[in-house]
Amino acid sequence: MAEIVVVFDFDKTIIDCDSDNWVVDGLSATDLFNQLLPTMPWNSLMDRMMRELHSQGKTVEGIAEVLKRAPIHPRVIPAIKSAHSLGCDLKIVSDANLFFIETILEHHGLRDYFSEINTNPSFIDKEGRLRIFPHHDFTTSSHGCNLCPPNMCKGVVIERIQASLSVEGEKTFIYLGDGSGDFCPSLKLGDRDHVMPRKNFPLWDLICKKRELIKAKIHEWSDGEELEHVLLHLIGAISTQENNSSNSAQLISVDCKLQTMSTSAHEALPQPLSVPH
Protein backbone atom coordinates (compact mmCIF):
# COMPACT_ATOMS: atom_id res chain seq x y z
CA MET A 1 0.00 0.00 0.00
CA ALA A 2 1.27 3.44 -0.92
CA GLU A 3 2.36 5.52 2.06
CA ILE A 4 2.52 8.77 0.04
CA VAL A 5 -0.60 10.15 -1.62
CA VAL A 6 0.00 12.84 -4.25
CA VAL A 7 -3.07 14.91 -5.13
CA PHE A 8 -2.93 17.09 -8.22
CA ASP A 9 -5.14 19.91 -9.32
CA PHE A 10 -5.43 19.79 -13.13
CA ASP A 11 -5.77 23.20 -14.78
CA LYS A 12 -2.58 25.28 -14.54
CA THR A 13 -0.97 22.48 -12.54
CA ILE A 14 -0.79 19.39 -14.76
CA ILE A 15 -1.60 21.38 -17.89
CA ASP A 16 -0.40 24.93 -18.38
CA CYS A 17 -3.78 26.53 -19.05
CA ASP A 18 -7.40 26.50 -17.95
CA SER A 19 -9.04 23.71 -19.96
CA ASP A 20 -12.43 25.44 -20.06
CA ASN A 21 -10.97 28.65 -21.46
CA TRP A 22 -8.78 26.66 -23.82
CA VAL A 23 -11.78 24.96 -25.41
CA VAL A 24 -13.93 28.09 -25.52
CA ASP A 25 -11.12 30.11 -27.12
CA GLY A 26 -10.09 27.30 -29.44
CA LEU A 27 -13.62 27.00 -30.83
CA SER A 28 -14.03 30.77 -31.25
CA ALA A 29 -16.74 31.10 -28.61
CA THR A 30 -15.01 33.57 -26.29
CA ASP A 31 -17.35 36.50 -26.93
CA LEU A 32 -20.47 34.48 -26.13
CA PHE A 33 -18.78 33.00 -23.06
CA ASN A 34 -17.90 36.46 -21.73
CA GLN A 35 -21.42 37.67 -22.46
CA LEU A 36 -23.02 34.84 -20.47
CA LEU A 37 -20.45 34.70 -17.64
CA PRO A 38 -22.19 37.27 -15.38
CA THR A 39 -25.50 35.42 -15.64
CA MET A 40 -24.76 31.96 -14.19
CA PRO A 41 -22.23 29.89 -12.24
CA TRP A 42 -19.11 28.83 -14.17
CA ASN A 43 -19.96 25.13 -14.16
CA SER A 44 -23.48 25.79 -15.47
CA LEU A 45 -22.01 28.12 -18.07
CA MET A 46 -19.72 25.41 -19.41
CA ASP A 47 -22.69 23.09 -19.92
CA ARG A 48 -24.49 25.94 -21.69
CA MET A 49 -21.44 26.55 -23.89
CA MET A 50 -21.38 22.89 -24.92
CA ARG A 51 -25.02 23.31 -26.02
CA GLU A 52 -24.17 26.43 -28.01
CA LEU A 53 -21.18 24.78 -29.66
CA HIS A 54 -23.27 21.70 -30.52
CA SER A 55 -25.91 23.92 -32.14
CA GLN A 56 -23.14 25.47 -34.26
CA GLY A 57 -22.14 22.04 -35.55
CA LYS A 58 -19.12 21.61 -33.29
CA THR A 59 -18.63 17.93 -32.46
CA VAL A 60 -17.28 16.12 -29.43
CA GLU A 61 -14.45 14.93 -31.68
CA GLY A 62 -13.65 18.53 -32.50
CA ILE A 63 -13.62 19.43 -28.82
CA ALA A 64 -11.25 16.52 -28.17
CA GLU A 65 -8.86 17.71 -30.87
CA VAL A 66 -8.70 21.14 -29.24
CA LEU A 67 -8.04 19.54 -25.85
CA LYS A 68 -5.18 17.46 -27.24
CA ARG A 69 -3.39 20.70 -28.13
CA ALA A 70 -3.59 22.05 -24.56
CA PRO A 71 -0.08 23.07 -23.42
CA ILE A 72 1.70 20.89 -20.91
CA HIS A 73 5.24 21.45 -19.69
CA PRO A 74 7.49 18.64 -20.98
CA ARG A 75 8.75 17.81 -17.47
CA VAL A 76 5.28 17.27 -15.98
CA ILE A 77 4.78 13.97 -17.80
CA PRO A 78 7.98 12.34 -16.49
CA ALA A 79 7.27 13.82 -13.05
CA ILE A 80 3.94 12.00 -12.91
CA LYS A 81 5.43 8.77 -14.21
CA SER A 82 8.33 8.94 -11.75
CA ALA A 83 6.07 9.64 -8.77
CA HIS A 84 3.99 6.62 -9.72
CA SER A 85 7.05 4.41 -10.18
CA LEU A 86 8.25 5.43 -6.71
CA GLY A 87 5.11 3.87 -5.28
CA CYS A 88 2.95 6.93 -4.71
CA ASP A 89 -0.83 6.86 -5.02
CA LEU A 90 -1.71 9.62 -7.51
CA LYS A 91 -5.11 11.32 -7.54
CA ILE A 92 -6.69 14.33 -9.23
CA VAL A 93 -9.05 16.82 -7.57
CA SER A 94 -10.16 19.36 -10.15
CA ASP A 95 -12.99 21.77 -10.94
CA ALA A 96 -12.66 21.01 -14.65
CA ASN A 97 -14.69 18.04 -15.94
CA LEU A 98 -14.12 14.36 -16.57
CA PHE A 99 -14.23 14.47 -20.38
CA PHE A 100 -11.66 17.27 -20.60
CA ILE A 101 -9.32 15.66 -18.06
CA GLU A 102 -9.49 12.11 -19.40
CA THR A 103 -9.10 13.26 -23.01
CA ILE A 104 -5.87 15.10 -22.18
CA LEU A 105 -4.49 12.38 -19.89
CA GLU A 106 -5.20 9.65 -22.45
CA HIS A 107 -3.59 11.71 -25.21
CA HIS A 108 -0.37 11.87 -23.18
CA GLY A 109 -0.55 8.27 -21.97
CA LEU A 110 -1.14 9.29 -18.35
CA ARG A 111 -4.64 8.08 -17.49
CA ASP A 112 -3.57 4.80 -15.89
CA TYR A 113 -1.16 6.53 -13.51
CA PHE A 114 -4.04 7.99 -11.50
CA SER A 115 -6.11 5.86 -9.14
CA GLU A 116 -8.88 8.43 -8.83
CA ILE A 117 -10.21 11.52 -10.62
CA ASN A 118 -12.52 13.75 -8.59
CA THR A 119 -14.12 16.37 -10.81
CA ASN A 120 -17.37 17.56 -12.37
CA PRO A 121 -19.07 14.65 -14.16
CA SER A 122 -19.71 14.75 -17.89
CA PHE A 123 -21.16 12.51 -20.54
CA ILE A 124 -22.15 12.54 -24.21
CA ASP A 125 -25.92 12.45 -24.68
CA LYS A 126 -27.85 10.65 -27.42
CA GLU A 127 -27.65 13.73 -29.64
CA GLY A 128 -23.86 13.72 -29.43
CA ARG A 129 -23.66 16.77 -27.20
CA LEU A 130 -21.24 16.92 -24.30
CA ARG A 131 -23.06 17.51 -21.03
CA ILE A 132 -21.27 18.87 -17.95
CA PHE A 133 -22.76 18.67 -14.46
CA PRO A 134 -21.68 19.89 -11.02
CA HIS A 135 -19.69 17.61 -8.73
CA HIS A 136 -22.02 18.78 -5.97
CA ASP A 137 -25.63 19.42 -6.95
CA PHE A 138 -25.98 22.90 -5.52
CA THR A 139 -29.55 23.17 -6.79
CA THR A 140 -30.73 20.76 -4.07
CA SER A 141 -28.34 21.57 -1.21
CA SER A 142 -25.23 23.53 -0.31
CA HIS A 143 -21.92 21.89 0.53
CA GLY A 144 -21.66 24.51 3.27
CA CYS A 145 -18.21 25.91 2.43
CA ASN A 146 -17.93 29.63 1.75
CA LEU A 147 -14.37 29.29 0.43
CA CYS A 148 -15.34 27.18 -2.59
CA PRO A 149 -17.59 27.55 -5.64
CA PRO A 150 -21.10 26.10 -5.24
CA ASN A 151 -20.47 23.11 -7.51
CA MET A 152 -17.43 21.71 -5.72
CA CYS A 153 -15.68 21.93 -2.38
CA LYS A 154 -12.25 20.36 -2.77
CA GLY A 155 -11.86 20.34 1.00
CA VAL A 156 -14.80 17.95 1.30
CA VAL A 157 -13.18 15.72 -1.33
CA ILE A 158 -9.84 15.68 0.51
CA GLU A 159 -11.57 14.80 3.78
CA ARG A 160 -13.32 11.89 2.06
CA ILE A 161 -10.02 10.64 0.61
CA GLN A 162 -8.34 10.96 4.00
CA ALA A 163 -11.14 9.02 5.68
CA SER A 164 -11.16 6.28 3.05
CA LEU A 165 -7.40 5.74 3.39
CA SER A 166 -7.27 5.96 7.19
CA VAL A 167 -7.97 2.23 7.52
CA GLU A 168 -4.61 1.57 5.84
CA GLY A 169 -2.68 3.50 8.46
CA GLU A 170 -0.98 6.88 8.38
CA LYS A 171 -0.46 8.48 4.99
CA THR A 172 1.56 11.50 3.96
CA PHE A 173 -0.27 13.77 1.52
CA ILE A 174 1.34 16.05 -1.02
CA TYR A 175 -1.13 18.50 -2.58
CA LEU A 176 -0.25 20.45 -5.75
CA GLY A 177 -2.41 23.32 -6.91
CA ASP A 178 -2.58 26.89 -8.12
CA GLY A 179 -6.06 28.35 -7.72
CA SER A 180 -8.12 29.86 -4.94
CA GLY A 181 -10.19 26.67 -4.90
CA ASP A 182 -7.08 24.81 -3.74
CA PHE A 183 -6.87 26.78 -0.50
CA CYS A 184 -9.70 24.92 1.22
CA PRO A 185 -8.15 21.45 0.70
CA SER A 186 -4.79 22.84 1.82
CA LEU A 187 -6.44 23.69 5.14
CA LYS A 188 -7.37 20.01 5.58
CA LEU A 189 -3.75 18.83 5.50
CA GLY A 190 -1.93 17.95 8.70
CA ASP A 191 1.56 18.67 9.97
CA ARG A 192 2.94 15.50 8.36
CA ASP A 193 1.65 16.63 4.95
CA HIS A 194 2.96 18.98 2.27
CA VAL A 195 1.37 21.55 -0.01
CA MET A 196 2.97 22.70 -3.26
CA PRO A 197 1.43 26.02 -4.39
CA ARG A 198 2.37 27.45 -7.77
CA LYS A 199 4.26 30.68 -7.17
CA ASN A 200 2.44 33.94 -7.96
CA PHE A 201 -0.87 32.17 -8.48
CA PRO A 202 -3.96 32.61 -6.26
CA LEU A 203 -3.27 29.67 -3.91
CA TRP A 204 0.25 30.96 -3.26
CA ASP A 205 -1.12 34.45 -2.59
CA LEU A 206 -3.70 33.13 -0.13
CA ILE A 207 -1.10 31.05 1.72
CA CYS A 208 1.19 34.07 1.97
CA LYS A 209 -1.63 36.09 3.53
CA LYS A 210 -2.95 33.35 5.83
CA ARG A 211 0.10 31.25 6.59
CA GLU A 212 -0.96 30.67 10.19
CA LEU A 213 -3.92 28.59 8.97
CA ILE A 214 -1.75 26.06 7.12
CA LYS A 215 -0.41 23.10 9.11
CA ALA A 216 1.33 21.40 6.17
CA LYS A 217 4.87 22.18 5.05
CA ILE A 218 4.98 24.49 2.03
CA HIS A 219 7.09 23.99 -1.10
CA GLU A 220 6.49 26.42 -3.95
CA TRP A 221 7.13 25.85 -7.66
CA SER A 222 6.94 28.03 -10.75
CA ASP A 223 6.90 25.74 -13.79
CA GLY A 224 6.95 22.10 -14.78
CA GLU A 225 10.68 21.78 -14.31
CA GLU A 226 10.47 23.03 -10.73
CA LEU A 227 7.37 20.91 -10.13
CA GLU A 228 9.32 17.80 -11.12
CA HIS A 229 12.38 18.72 -9.06
CA VAL A 230 10.50 19.68 -5.90
CA LEU A 231 8.01 16.81 -6.06
CA LEU A 232 10.53 14.04 -6.66
CA HIS A 233 12.97 15.44 -4.09
CA LEU A 234 10.14 15.60 -1.57
CA ILE A 235 8.97 12.04 -2.30
CA GLY A 236 12.51 10.76 -1.91
CA ALA A 237 13.02 12.61 1.35
CA ILE A 238 9.70 11.45 2.83
CA SER A 239 10.48 7.85 1.87
CA THR A 240 13.94 8.09 3.43
CA GLN A 241 12.52 9.58 6.61
CA GLU A 242 9.89 6.86 6.87
CA ASN A 243 12.49 4.15 6.31
CA ASN A 244 14.72 5.65 8.98
CA SER A 245 12.08 6.84 11.42
CA SER A 246 14.06 5.43 14.30
CA ASN A 247 16.54 8.28 14.01
CA SER A 248 13.76 10.62 15.18
CA ALA A 249 14.51 13.21 12.52
CA GLN A 250 11.92 15.93 12.91
CA LEU A 251 10.99 19.03 11.01
CA ILE A 252 10.87 22.41 12.70
CA SER A 253 7.89 24.40 11.48
CA VAL A 254 8.21 27.14 8.90
CA ASP A 255 7.92 30.57 10.44
CA CYS A 256 4.75 32.53 9.77
CA LYS A 257 6.33 34.55 7.00
CA LEU A 258 7.47 31.40 5.16
CA GLN A 259 10.96 32.82 4.89
CA THR A 260 13.02 30.13 6.54
CA MET A 261 12.71 26.54 7.56
CA SER A 262 15.17 24.39 9.48
CA THR A 263 15.49 20.63 9.33
CA SER A 264 17.31 18.16 11.49
CA ALA A 265 21.02 17.64 11.06
CA HIS A 266 20.20 14.80 8.71
CA GLU A 267 18.27 17.14 6.33
CA ALA A 268 15.36 14.75 6.46
CA LEU A 269 13.18 16.80 4.11
CA PRO A 270 13.95 19.44 1.48
CA GLN A 271 13.72 23.05 2.51
CA PRO A 272 10.70 24.89 1.16
CA LEU A 273 11.47 27.75 -1.17
CA SER A 274 11.01 31.25 0.17
CA VAL A 275 7.48 32.62 0.01
CA PRO A 276 7.49 36.35 0.79
CA HIS A 277 4.56 38.06 2.47
From TrEMBL:
Gene3D superfamilies listed in its UniProt record: HAD superfamily/HAD-like (3.40.50.1000)
Alphabetic keyword roster: Hydrolase, Magnesium, Metal-binding
Cofactor: Mg(2+)
Binding-site residues, substrate: D20, D95
A Pfam short name: Put_Phosphatase
SUPFAM superfamilies xrefs: HAD-like
Leader peptide range in chain numbering: none
MF terms in GO: metal ion binding; phosphatase activity
Record: residues binding Mg(2+): D9, D11, D178
Active-site positions on this chain: D9, D11
PANTHER family with a match to the protein in the record: LP01149P, PHOSPHATASE, ORPHAN 1, 2
The protein's name in its UniProt record: Uncharacterized protein
Organism (species): Liquidambar formosana (Formosan gum)
